[in-house]
Amino acid sequence: MKIGIPQALLYHYYYPFWKTYFDSLEIETIISSPTNKRIMDQGVKYSVPEMCVPIKVYLGHVLELVDKGADYIFVPRFVSIQKGQFFCPKFMGLPDIIRHSFPEMEPIMISPYIESTTDDLATSIKQYQVFEEKFGISRRDNRKALKNAESVWKSFREYSLRGYDISEAAALSMNDGHKTLKQRKSEVKERFETPEVTIGVLGYVYNIYDSVISLDILNRLKEMGVKVRTFEMIDDDVLKEQLSSIPKTLFWTFSDKLFAAGNHFYHDSEIDGIIHVTAFGCGPDSMLGKLLELDSTKHEKPFMTLRIDEHSGENHLQTRVEAFVDMLKRKKRKVKRGALA
After folding, report:
1. Position 147 confidence tier, pLDDT thresholds 50, 70, 90
2. How open is the CA angle 340-296-279, to the nearest 5 degrees?
3. What is the pTM of this model?
4. Which residues are 85's β-sheet partners?
5. For residues 145 and 174, is the Cβ–Cβ distance under 8 A?
6. Residue 44: Cβ within 10 Å count
7. I need a labelling partner for 145 at 20 to 30 A (CA). Which of 20, 50, 127, 160 fits?
8. What is the pLDDT of residues 173-217, one digit of tens each?
């Protein structure tokens, strides 16, 4: 039995958890290919125009998994992982989007209902009862698999908090699953670097870690000698503290994480500038982006918005990013020479 996992949306954040969980249950997984032009074109073909590009891309990944021979497609329904906060409506309705886009896939979709009070996906066995029913898994084996997945997930978060990007943290955490969490914590090292500039890149994981959607912005910045900081590299307690002084938050889980990370970056003297990567047509980002832009004036820290969709061109992005980085470097050099206060 093979379960297909689309390499899109929250795959980029929860893959270590999901992969470990299925491996522990001895369920074979098929991962769709990294996003490419064919996957994007297929997703666009079957999407309504109003959909944001990450959802369009997701549809393309689902279609590829069917072509690869997956018996089931894993399409979780994300509702909430924190009290009083919710996911974008498209995440809550993702199984319905797939069902109505491809009616023939309804029998092969597995859609656990993800609703908990913490970012820890293993908090409630009820979310995973569907696998007991589908595959005849015992409650005991299910709990054991969740415990294994939770351990790897915590390791993944430890690596992220020490400056490793998501792809690096995922590889590291899944390669040391035999170690205890205490052992892993003692071995993880802070990444000490001396870059000329450090930029806080704000964006949902499925935007900035999908190299086709983002036009590989993270690697482009690294090639320019820029140190990159993203929201998942900040401790959740720090993010919550940033939100505690705000009378009303943004209601959406990951939008609040980005808003808190943006506030943290504005107060962090090591951050020289901020880039917000947002998909055209994203409702939550229409408010988040404006708030971040207004705060940049108050904190006198350079801020740039990169709006992306399936029509975005590499030359356009490359020129803007290079100009932004060059501006930050020139400003920092002038400060060092005493030209600026």
Report:
1. very high
2. 135
3. 0.88
4. 82
5. no
6. 18
7. 160
8. 988 655 555 555 555 555 556 778 999 999 999 999 999 999 899
